[in-house]
Structures are given as structure tokens and as C-alpha cells.
Write a structure and sequence with these properties.
Layout (H helix, E strand, L loop, with lengths): L1 E6 L7 H10 L4 E5 L17 E6 L5 E2 L2 E2 L5 E6 L3 E4 L11 E8 L6 E7 L6 H16 L5 E6 L10 H12 L3 E2 L15 E5 L9 E4 L8 E5 L11 E5 L6 H10 L13 H19 L2 E5 L6 H4 L2 H20 L2 H27 L3 H11 L16 H18 L1
Parallel strand pairs: 1-2, 9-10
Antiparallel strand pairs: 1-14, 2-6, 3-6, 4-5, 7-8, 8-9, 10-12, 11-12, 13-14, 15-16
InterPro entries: Endo/exonu/phosph_ase_sf, Endo/exonuclease/phosphatase
Protein name: Endonuclease/exonuclease/phosphatase domain-containing protein
Organism: Amphibalanus amphitrite (Striped barnacle)
Length: about 400
């Protein structure tokens, strides 16, 4: 099972890039820290096709007149993975954030998986005590445990007292840390994002740091010794509008019996709606039948099928490499400029994709050509006498029956 973590620094504006990270790296699970989500953001808006999400938003605290923001955790898993959120008591005197779930692929061994975040600038002692307590708590489940997150403890500086205490604490609770290279690049790279496990047979060789551009942290991953879920093909039920004869569709709608809508003036709105749908669906089902189809188009096509964006992405990646190797102000500025431009172009491409006409749009355009226009004022001179009106009605009724 491939598990990843990234400090996203605000998830909502980076949903497309997060989906791309999941797809390109073939992740079964992605742990996210610093989601910056709040209770007024519904999980229904955080769509990841074929995945579901667990989240733990930061509790809003006030310090005097200032309201703290940020933090927050999420775990995104494939739908095929069985997962249950664990109720681990939160620390009382620590700002350490954590989210724990039990996971299992169909027919596979279960494990405990966690995401964590420790804000910078907080006292280390209560945070390490809280982390120690949680690691002991989840170990009681007697399952493999994997904890991924940003602990803001730089392991490239083992000489620092808090780092030494952290490593000692892990040894005392029989956990070890797998990441070996910096996870936050820049002029002074640091190793802030960690993967902890109680599995002594799992070595750092199955963990990796992968360059990304979604935040100032890179992605960390682990190939955990857990069975990978077999991905089910994505299928949806939709109306097929590919081979519609719009002239025949409109004619059938015009010739349909709509009299049920006018038989009883006392009909309720709900009854009128049902009567309309009965007639409407009987025609639409013939011309646009419901079908179960397997999705074959790529996820986020405005990004994956856009050659200009792919070229800009390549330029951005090259600039990132130059920034990391040269470390100059100019290379940093060039990278940030291309990174910002790429994000702007993604938003524009997404808007253009969704505003493009579809086959369903074409159908409604054709139907509106045959729709009745808005009612217009009628003068007394325009009113037909009953005899003339009946002759018109008889004529069109006869024409309609001949067409059928």
C-alpha cells in the first residue's frame, strides 16, 4: 500500500494540484497537514474521484483579540480501503494535532494509520509528551502503525536538544523514523516531515522524498507492507445523447399527449410536476436512454490534456532544479514566478473547460427552438371567434395524426 504525506498549506485552492499528486504518484492514501479547513467548508466540496476523506479541523482558539488559524489534518483513502476513525483523546496541554484511522484492504491485514502536525514555535516538552502518549495508545491495538506528518523538528540538526529528546522518545516506545533527506527545500534545507512506524522490518529504503510544487514542503511516501486495494473501474449512469435525432425528438414531444396537465385546474404543483415528467420521460427515454458507462477519460482533462500547460509545467520543474542547485536570489525568483503562473493558468483552463458546450447543451439548444415564446399582450382585434378557432384546432389535430 503506497501512503504519502504533504504539508499543503491550505487545501481548498490547491485541490487540482492535490488530485494530480495522488494520480501521478499512484497513492492509495494521502495524509495532509495544514489543510486550513474550517467547519463551514463541507467535505462534499472536497471531491477526489475514487477516494473518500477523513478530516480533523483545527479548533479555533483566541489569544486576546487575535484568532489563530491554520493547522488541520486530512486523510484521503481509496474507496476500496475499509477505514474507521479512531477516538484518541486529544492532548490537554499541547498544540499537537493528530488524526488516526484503522485501515485494511479487502482480504488484507489491518493497520493503524495517522496524520500529525506540530505547529512551530510551541514548547517541545508537552508536544513530545503528547506524541509519546498517542503512540503508546495506538500500539495497544497490536497492529502495524504508520504515522506521517510535519513535526517541525529538523532532523538534519541532531545536535539540537529537542531533536535528541525526540529520537530518544521514539526508541523508548519502539518506533523509528524512515525519512533521511530534507523535505523542505531552499537555501537552508530542513527535514521536518517524518514517517514513524513500529515495524522493525520496515527500513528507510521503502520511503522517499518526491519534489512537488504545491507548497514549500515536498511529498514523502512509503511503500507499506500492506496489500494494495484493487481499483474498481469507475462507472456512472447517464443519458446518452450521442446519436440523437433532434428533429424527431422535438416532433415526438410536440405530438405527445400533454392533456394531463390541463384536466384539473385544482391540481397541486406536485401533481402537475409528476404529470409533466410522465409525458416528458416517456419521450426522452426513447431518444436519450439511460446507460451504465465506464469512465475512460483522464482525471482533470483541462490539465492532463493541455499541451501548453504541460510545457509550462516542465519549465517550472526546470526552474525548481536550478533554484535547488544554484541557490541564488534570481533562480528563486524565476521559480516562484513560473510556479505562480502555472497555478493561474490551471484556474483559467478549468474555467474554460467547464464553460465549453457539451452534447447535453446542444440538446437543450435544439429543444428551445421548438419551445413556445413568452406570452404577449393580445388586443381585442386579434381574438378569434370560436368557429374559426375550432377549425384551426381540427386542422392541426388532423395533421398531427397523419405525421404519426
Amino acid at each position: 500500500m503506497k501512503i504519502g504525506h504533504i504539508n499543503i498549506r491550505s487545501l481548498v485552492p490547491k485541490l487540482d494540484e492535490t488530485r494530480l499528486i495522488i494520480r501521478q504518484n499512484e497513492l492509495d492514501v494521502l495524509c495532509i497537514s495544514e489543510t486550513w479547513l474550517t467547519g463551514d467548508i463541507s467535505s462534499d466540496l472536497l471531491l477526489f474521484a475514487g477516494y473518500r476523506i477523513f478530516r480533523e479541523d483545527r479548533k479555533v482558539l483566541k489569544r486576546g483579540q487575535r484568532t489563530t488559524r491554520g493547522g488541520g489534518l486530512a486523510i484521503i483513502l481509496r474507496e476500496e480501503i475499509t477505514a474507521t476513525k479512531l477516538k484518541i483523546p486529544p492532548p490537554t496541554d499541547s498544540r499537537l494535532e493528530s488524526l488516526w484511522v484503522t485501515v485494511a484492504a479487502p482480504g488484507g491485514r489491518s493497520a493503524v494509520l495517522g496524520a500529525t502536525y506540530r505547529p512551530p514555535g510551541e514548547p517541545e516538552t508537552p508536544d513530545l509528551d503528547a506524541l509519546r502518549q498517542q503512540l503508546l495508545e495506538v500500539s495497544r491495538h497490536e497492529k502495524p502503525v504508520f504515522l506521517l506528518g510535519d513535526l517541525n523538528l529538523d532532523l538534519t540538526r541532531p545536535d539540537r536538544l529537542q531533536v535528541a529528546r525526540y529520537i530518544t522518545m521514539l526508541q523508548e516506545v519502539n518506533f523509528h523514523q524512515l525519512i533521511r533527506s530534507p523535505t523542505r527545500p531552499g537555501a537552508t534545507p530542513s527535514l521536518l516531515d517524518h514517517i514513524l512506524t513500529n515495524q522493525t522490518s520496515v527500513s528507510h529504503e521503502v520511503a522517499a522524498v518526491i519534489k512537488t510544487h504545491v507548497s514549500d514542503h515536498d511529498l514523502i511516501t512509503i511503500e507499506a507492507p500492506l496489500p494494495r486495494p484493487k481499483r474498481k473501474p469507475r462507472e456512472i449512469t447517464t443519458r446518452s445523447t450521442r446519436d440523437v435525432n433532434y428533429d424527431q425528438l422535438c416532433l415526438d414531444l410536440l405530438q405527445s399527449d400533454w392533456s394531463a396537465l390541463y384536466r384539473d385546474e385544482a391540481m397541486s404543483i406536485d401533481a402537475l410536476y409528476d404529470a409533466f415528467l410522465n409525458t416528458w420521460n416517456s419521450v426522452i427515454d426513447q431518444h436519450c436512454p439511460m446507460k451504465r458507462v465506464r469512465l475512460r477519460h483522464p482525471d482533470r482533462p483541462w490539465l492532463t490534456l493541455n499541451d501548453d500547460l504541460r510545457e509550462l509545467q516542465s519549465q517550472r520543474d526546470t526552474a525548481r532544479h536550478h533554484r535547488d542547485t544554484l541557490g541564488t536570489v534570481a533562480s528563486e525568483q524565476q521559480y516562484l514566478t513560473l510556479k505562480k503562473e502555472f497555478r493561474r493558468r490551471i484556474a483559467a483552463a478549468r474555467a474554460e473547460y467547464f464553460s465549453a458546450p457539451s452534447s447535453m447543451t446542444e440538446m437543450w439548444v435544439e429543444l428551445r427552438k421548438h419551445a413556445l415564446g413568452p406570452a404577449q399582450a393580445v388586443s381585442p382585434d386579434d381574438v378569434l371567434d370560436a368557429e374559426t378557432a375550432n377549425r384551426f384546432n381540427s386542422y392541426f389535430a388532423e395533421v398531427g395524426s397523419r405525421q404519426g
